[in-house]
Structures are given as C-alpha cells and as structure tokens.
Amino acid sequence: MKVLANDGLSQSGIDSLRKAGFEVIVKKVAQEQLKDYLRDNGISVLLVRSATKVRKEIIDACIHLKVIGRGGVGMDNIDVEYARSKGLSVINTPSASSSSVAELVFAHLFGGVRKLHDSNRNMPLEGDSRFKDLKKSYAGGVELRGKTLGIIGFGRIGREVAKIALGVGMKVIASDHEVGEAEITLEFYNHQTIKIPIKTEPVEMLIRDSDFITLHVPSQDKPVIGKAEFDKMKDGVGIINAARGGVLDEEALLEAIETGKVSFAALDTYENEPNPAIKLLMNESISLSPHIGAATQEAQERIGVELAEQIISILKKEKA
Ligand SMILES: O=C(O)[C@H](O)COP(=O)(O)O
C-alpha cells in the first residue's frame, strides 16, 4: 500500500511504515494537482499537516484512499465527517505536540513583557543618536511572577500552558465548557507528581481578571475575542493566539493596541495564512511567529511515530 506524506513526516515514522511493508512517498504535491496524483498513483494513505486541504472533491475522486492522517491536532483542513461517512479512517495526534505549543506560548510571553521581539530588531548601540531613547523604551518591562494568566480552552495544550505558568509563579485561571474546578498534574524530571486545582471561570470573568490571556480553542465560526471582549479587559493586558487564525479578531486587536488597552500581543496563527496582514507585520507591539507551535523536532518525532502506529493498526485490522 502506498502512503503519501504531503507535508513531511519524521524519519522514524517513515521507517516504521516501511518496516511494516508500506511504500512511503514523501513529497509535496501542489494542492491543485493532489486529487489527480492520489488517484493516478493509487494512494491508500494521505498524511498531511495544516498546509494541505483534504476536501470532499479529493475524497470522492480517490477511491483507493483508506486513511487520512493529520500529523497534529486541528483537523479544520479536512472534511472529517464527510470522509468518515464514506468509510475512510481519519486520524490525528491530539497530544503529541502539546508541550511544544505551550513552550512557544511562553517564549512569546517572556519575550513580550520585555519587548525582546522588538529590541532584537532595533538593538541600540552606544554612539547611535537614538541610544538613550531606545534603551529607555526597552526598559520598564514587567515580571510574570505573581501575575494572572487566563487560559481560554483548557484541553491538552491549555493544561500544558498552565503547568509552565505555575512553575513561573503565576496565578492561573481557565475557561472551558465546564465551569468549576479542574485539576492538573505537575510532573517533575524525577517523576514526582503534584496535583494542583485550577479555577475555571466563564470567559467574561476570565477576561476581566487576567493580566495575560492565551487562547487554546479550535477553529471557530466567529472570534472568541473581539472588540467587546477587549473593552472588558484590564488596561495593558498581553494576549497570545497560538490556536487558530480567526479566534482573535485582528482588526479589534490592532485597535486595542492603538488605545493602549493591549500592551503586547503574540501571534503564531493568523486570519490570513501564510501571509498575515501587513498591519500586523509592521506593528512593534506584536511578536510574530509563522505557525510553528508544533514544529519542534520532538513533537514531529512523536507525531510521526504515532501516525505510523495508528495506520499499521487500522490497516492490519482491515486486512484481518
Ligand atoms: O493543529 C496543529 O497541530 C497545529 O496548528 C500545528 O499545525 P502544523 O502541523 O501545520 O504545524
């Protein structure tokens, strides 16, 4: 059986699949040629990340297709229900990248409170007429310790973010479908564990009470954070979106930065990917990364291995 990994696959994932007898093709077929390629080459397993779209048209045309595998979490690029209704298996790797995304959130958070993303661009040197002013503009950052982090969406990634925040000495509040108390388990390098209760609140309260807000919800039809929500936040709040473009209204964000309501923002995902709005790119209060939350070596390694295991198990069962 043939596997096409259209957005890449870790070497260990490739090796496991090959060992199990699959022919693995790792190459990028352009979106407009994908349907023909899959059909003409009799591909049984299509593996993608977020870049490749797998819509009805492809599912209908490719009769050899048995499994669609998403290396990662969000399946908004795949017509999942439709594929399943046609008898295909659609799989993802929901937990493999949680700590990588959480660490990126904190990379942005630590950098944002000290304006590192901007000082990297404008590093002031003595002798430069702007030296004093620039140095002053990068002074006056704040500490994270003792501040409140509001986590909207308390699934696997949200919980990983909470663990880091607790380690830094932040107060954590979360918002999810259920309101009440959630529990997370902190696991140390020596395998010692501690259970910590986390208060969950409705989004309106979280927005009001947080010094920093980070979003960890799936793609939505309308933004979770828009003008009305920004208006209710504390002055000088910091906000991070490493979830999906569109869960944060970018126009409203730019306006909130302009009025000083938001002191800094960090974005890893955008309404318009992969080419974010120029106004975001030019804004010195925004720390940017190109949708790399899950793009660490470790996460991609786990993703590849998990995908291979699932594919082998599904197709073995089918054969039996
Ligand atoms: O949903 C995900 O897993 C993340 O957004 C990562 O997407 P990527 O695999 O395309 O980097």
Would you kindly provide a written description of the structure presented here, covering whatever features stand out?
This protein is an alpha/beta fold and 320 residues long. The protein has two domains: 2-93 and 297-319, Rossmann fold (3-Layer(aba) Sandwich), CATH 3.40.50.720; 98-288, Rossmann fold (3-Layer(aba) Sandwich). The chain has 13 helices and 13 strands. The chain is globular. The two termini are 15 Å apart. The model has no long low-confidence stretch (mean pLDDT 96). Bound molecules: 3-phosphoglyceric acid (3PG).
Radius of gyration: 22 Å
What is the CATH homology-level superfamily of the largest domain?
NAD(P)-binding Rossmann-like Domain
Instruction: Please identify, by name, the CATH architecture of the largest domain.
Output: 3-Layer(aba) Sandwich
Reported for the largest beta sheet, the result is:
8 strands, mixed
Q: What is the typical, i.e. mean, pLDDT?
A: 96
Task: Explain briefly what this protein structure is.
This protein has 13 helices and 13 strands. The chain has about 325 residues and is α/β, with parallel strands linked by helices. The longest helix is centred in the last third of the chain and has 23 residues, at about 295-320.
Which secondary structure elements does this structure contain, and how are they paired or packed?
Blueprint lengths: L1 E4 L5 H9 L3 E4 L4 H10 L2 E6 L7 H6 L5 E4 L9 H6 L3 E3 L6 H16 L2 H7 L8 H8 L9 E5 L3 H13 L2 E5 L4 E8 L5 E8 L2 H7 L2 E4 L11 H6 L4 E5 L8 H10 L2 E6 L10 H4 L4 E3 L8 H23 L1
Parallel strand pairs: 1-2, 1-3, 3-4, 4-5, 6-7, 6-10, 7-9, 10-11, 11-12, 12-13
Antiparallel strand pairs: 8-9
Helix pairs in contact: 1-13, 5-8
Bound molecules: 3-phosphoglyceric acid.
Protein name: 3-phosphoglycerate dehydrogenase
InterPro entries: D-iso_2-hydroxyacid_DH_PdxB, D-isomer_2_OHA_DH_cat_dom, D-isomer_DH_NAD-bd, NAD(P)-bd_dom_sf
Keywords: NAD, Oxidoreductase
